[in-house]
């Protein structure tokens, strides 16, 4: 399944725009609620340009909820960040996420422990990373480093950046299928 022409995207109905967001990001009503208007309100020349506009919107949502140490982010932001499956999860709804995480299979127990440690350190967040072909040891070390850093605000920024990097990669792959 390829992507619709970028020039026509703002003219598509809400259902089509939501389906596109599901392909680029993850299926999530919070993503739809936050990003459909980004698609609808402008014409874009490329999918990376659209994803950059989505990133700006997501960062503005994070900034609007920023209070002190950012320990109580907006519920919509948490729903967006929680739309990505946990690394190494046995059941992954998104075909794209399942393919992207294929090289992480076989470390379920250790990834489960790291996921639990991460989520205890950063309540309400889920570890999101652009795997980009990296193997288990490198990803698990990144996860440990981010847990050790312990900066909630930086985690939100890193997760949003990863979501948009993943979306750009997906767009490039889906566009190549046309």
TrEMBL record:
Gene Ontology biological-process annotations: purine nucleobase metabolic process
Superkingdom of the source species: Eukaryota
UniProt entry keywords in alphabetical sequence: Purine metabolism
Xref: Gene3D superfamilies: Oxo-4-hydroxy-4-carboxy-5-ureidoimidazoline decarboxylase (1.10.3330.10)
Oxo-4-hydroxy-4-carboxy-5-ureidoimidazoline decarboxylase domain boundaries: 16-171
Pfam families membership: OHCU_decarbox
InterPro entries assigned to the protein according to its UniProt record, in alphabetical order: OHCU_decarboxylase (IPR018020), OHCU_decarboxylase_sf (IPR036778)
PANTHER family: CHROMOSOME 9, WHOLE GENOME SHOTGUN SEQUENCE, OXO-4-HYDROXY-4-CARBOXY-5-UREIDOIMIDAZOLINE DECARBOXYLASE DOMAIN-CONTAINING PROTEIN
Protein name, per record: Oxo-4-hydroxy-4-carboxy-5-ureidoimidazoline decarboxylase domain-containing protein
Organism from which the protein derives: Cylindrodendrum hubeiense
